[in-house]
Design brief:
single chain, 224 residues, alpha/beta, TIM Barrel, 2 domains, 7-stranded mixed beta sheet, 35% helix, globular, Glyco_hydro18_cat
Length: 224
């Protein structure tokens, strides 16, 4: 009810995440099978249409319209392919799923840990609408050895990880226009700050760092 209420009152985009930390065990088997890949791709669309119909009350005719879905995008989070074969099979899923979901009006993102940029070829980057760069759990630079003060990434380390993703030979460096204002490719970096470990629930503050990149510079916008 809360996402539905929020979306009707504000220009909120609701996405479905597939996978995530501790929830990617099925990816290798699914990606290795053409039948299972297609089954996943189509089942996601069925779920999107079902949720849209339930949340908005839209009829079958309205469901066929590209802008009628309650769900606006799909985020694929297969964090750690363990072998080259797993990586290649994951790329098969991406190259099959992205155009299929795009035809239905859905946006598609994928999640990467820092230093994984070379895992994905430029041809796939060009098809993505977003990249979610998981920099929040990098250990940040600090002069203190206290774990409470050195728990999450510093902004400097986040910027360094983004700049590595833009180096020659990495996918985003060959498609810089897709990372600029006015184009659709955005790097979204989620950062979470914790206070005292005894007061985490009451002091946690969330920030979203959006890096807008060109071939020569990186600009940062912080959304609280």
């Amino acid at each position: 009810k809360t996402p539905t209420k929020t979306k009707t009152k504000t220009p909120t985009r609701v996405w479905i995440t597939i996978g995530g930390g501790g929830r990617t065990a099925a990816f290798p088997e699914i990606c290795a099978s053409s039948r299972l890949r297609q089954q996943l791709i189509e089942s996601v669309l069925e779920k999107v249409k079902l949720v849209s119909n339930t949340s908005t009350g839209a009829g079958a005719k309205q469901q066929s319209q590209r802008d009628s879905f309650f769900i606006g995008g799909i985020d694929l989070d297969f964090f750690q392919p363990r072998t080259i074969r797993e990586r290649d099979n994951y790329l098969l899923l991406l190259t099959e799923a992205i155009p299929r979901w795009h035809r239905e009006g859905l946006k598609v993102s994928m999640t990467l840990h820092p230093h994984q940029g070379r895992m994905i070829p430029p041809s796939v980057y060009r098809q993505l609408d977003r990249i979610h760069f998981m920099t929040y759990d990098m250990i940040g630079g600090s002069s203190s050895n206290n774990n409470n003060n050195n728990y999450h990434a510093s902004l400097g380390k986040v910027r360094q990880a983004v700049e590595e993703l833009l180096q020659p030979g990495v996918g985003l460096e060959t498609t810089p226009d897709r990372c600029c204002w006015g184009f659709r490719h955005t790097l979204g970096i989620f950062a979470i700050r914790h206070g005292s470990r005894h007061l985490v629930k009451s002091t946690t503050t969330r920030f979203v760092f959006v890096f807008v990149t060109t071939r020569t510079r990186t600009r940062t916008r912080v959304i609280r």
